[in-house]
Amino acid sequence: MNRIAEQLTLSASDSPNNQLDGGSSNICGTGVQFELASGNNPAAFTQQYTDVKSERDARIKMDHGTTTLAFKFKHGVLVATDSRATSGNVIASQSVKKVIEINPYLLGTMAGGAADCSFWERVLGMECRLYELRNKKRISVAAASKLLANLVYRYKGMGLSMGTMVAGWDESGPGLYYVDSEGQRVVNDLFSVGSGSTFAYGVLDSHYRFDMSVDEAKDLGRRAIYHATHRDAYSGGIVRMYWVKEDGWVAYPLEDVGELYFRYHPEIKLTHAAESPLAAQRAA
Amino acid sequence: MSYDSALTIFSPDGHLFQVEYAQEAVRKGTCAVGICCKDSVILGVEKKAALKLQDSRTMRKIHRLDEHIFLASAGLVADARVLVDMARVECQNHRLTVEDAPTVEFISHYIASVQQRYTQSGGRRPFGISTLIVGFDPNNTPKLFQTDPSGIYYQWKANAIGRNSKTVHEFLEKHYAQDMSESDGIKLAVKSLLEVVQTGAKNIEILVITKDGNRTPNIQEIEQTIKTIEAEKVEEAEKKANKRKPATPA
């Protein structure tokens, strides 16, 4: 199953002599390769220790607490994430950077294993740069996401945990792909990834329109993250927002979700108690 | 001491003789010419005379590498077969990983780097072919590239490879015009091949590639083109003769 991926990703161990029959490709760069577990089925071996679905105690637990979202609209792609990292019941950090700046016109988001995401997206950044140098033009978002998907497909079943969105702007306009460590790679106008994604989807799906203005898009992204952090225990901290436009991405000032509460919460008429006749009596 | 027996040895004056001998093999192959026009690109090849018992349809000199990229070679036909297959795989590889059609430059670079690799390791000999790679890029610009056994590749407006290519190339230099129409391009390709192919239409094969597709003019069309060329030649000659005639005194 992984043989196709092996052929399509030139590994660092390919010496010039080995490449005689393969030809030198401008698509895949040097790639990065790790030693796999020994034996003919490394996936089966590592799966015992990292399989997220199994109940065994010995497995290495991966935390997925996060909310990240991205959507395409008329003026580009808006990317927004929270910044909380949890290990078990402890909030490890409230200021994690979950948006990875692959290069000045491509962004990747982080969900799942932080190390997996940041490492492989940096390798992707290297491959994208090599592509640019070899082919004298920017890499398309489709190709960049494909490279990332192929890179991690080699390690499918071996415990990588990564759910990332690749956002950028190329010749065919704004581009957005979702790539994960299971080997999935799909295209869509709107994605949200992480434990808080269900809450974010609710807000996004209610108000999303392709022809939003930039300010409307920013508000929607901020709002969706806020609502997710409000309800999901594993999301919180600050909202990190980026706008990818034709000539690259721009980062926006950070906003604390605690402060956003006071901006957005009065809009929600949640408690009947505030409007009930009893409350009016008590106030009087 | 002979410096030409092993591939990986330079001669004292900087030659790789095996590569140069490979280029000799190319000069013995049948001629091929490529011409870039305004909205099309023309490939013309000299077809070897079909032997009586041979099915001439199986003799292919023009190979398709991808939707809109074609290759014609001069030199060792078997080497061409191998290189064409490698190039076809690389085109599909490109489509798979990049989700986009390869540019003509990309595949020419690939073919050239394969040819170069075979000039730098022991135990293998260089490919004995030069290639003309023609086609359209995804942005609809016509392109023509040439590779040779040493592994170089250059873009050309028009070029020729194979036997008598020098003559054909000089002819092209004299008669090539920027932004020609398709029919002018076909005429020029046939004219330039006629310089070296004496026997006429049945030994010439043309391929016309436009951004929407490609077509192979049949033998009647080529014969028609040749007739037009000959008529034009006669016209030219008459004009010249009329100019030279002295004015009769009144």
From TrEMBL, chain A:
Alphabetically ordered keywords of this record: Hydrolase, Proteasome
Top-level division of the source organism's lineage: Eukaryota
Entry EC number(s): 3.4.25.1
Name of the protein this chain belongs to: Proteasome subunit beta type-5
Q: Which gene encodes it?
A: PSMB5_1
From TrEMBL, chain B:
The top EC class is hydrolase
What keywords were assigned to this record? Hydrolase, Proteasome
EC number per UniProt? 3.4.25.1
Protein's name according to its UniProt entry: Proteasome subunit alpha type-4
Species name: Kickxella alabastrina
